[in-house]
Amino acid sequence: xxxxxxxxxxxxxxxxxxxxxxxxxxxxxxxxxxxxxxxxxxxxxxxxxxxxxxxxxxxxxxxxxxxxxxxxxxxxxxxxxxxxxxxxxxxxxxxxxxxxxxxxxxxxxxxxxxxxxxxxxxxxxxxxxxxxxxxxxxxxxxxxxxxxxxxxxxxxxxxxxxxxxxxxxxxxxxxxxxxxxxxxxxxxxxxxxxxxxxxxxxxxxxxxxxxxxxxxxxxxxxxxxxxxxxxxxxxxxxxxxxxxxxxxxxxxxxx
Length: 255
Fold this sequence. Notes:
With 255 residues, the chain is of the alpha/beta class. It is built from 11 helices and 9 strands. The chain folds into 2 domains: 2-121 and 197-254, no CATH class; 125-191, no CATH class. Helix content is 38%, strand content 14%. Helix 8 crosses helix 11. The chain is globular, with a radius of gyration of 19 Å. The model has no long low-confidence stretch (mean pLDDT 91).
């Protein structure tokens, strides 16, 4: 068995996090009163960081901090787990989890005998989107293509992004991706009807490092592309976080 080096990303203080025996990264630390947080929590405004971008980057500012300041402390084959303060990797889905038993139920080891490179959350299926929400938010999409009301196979990753985060923004972001991944990513978002959410995973250091080295240069180009867009409201405020969420899913499936 191999030990999992767990990190939990949070943007707020929750007392129960102190009892979990995992590394806590405070996202957006630049904008916090750090006296309100435990000294042993990791702060994403230390060292090489982009904490000042947290408003539009969301959890990505913590992923960046981990990449630039912590990954070098691990060997290539060591396992690293990413959790969020509302979502944790646990041993057994059949156990009723509460704050008192969460710590002892966190998945701490992975078998080195099994042939896998990553653990991911279950996919979200676009066909399970509530049609009331689709109609409310996706009116312009239906004007362009009313068959979406009747063909669930048309409910792609790109459609969902158009619906909730801005029309054609994911498509435009894919256009400026590096040539190694551009075609495959465009196929992924236009054909797939499900993806792994939340940027949560357990994988080895060398795989995660490669993920980050692909993600952040692309996101920086997206910033330049969309610098005239007003990032306001839930759907757009963390635009780059949402873009990366789709790319993370694609990366693990492709590589």
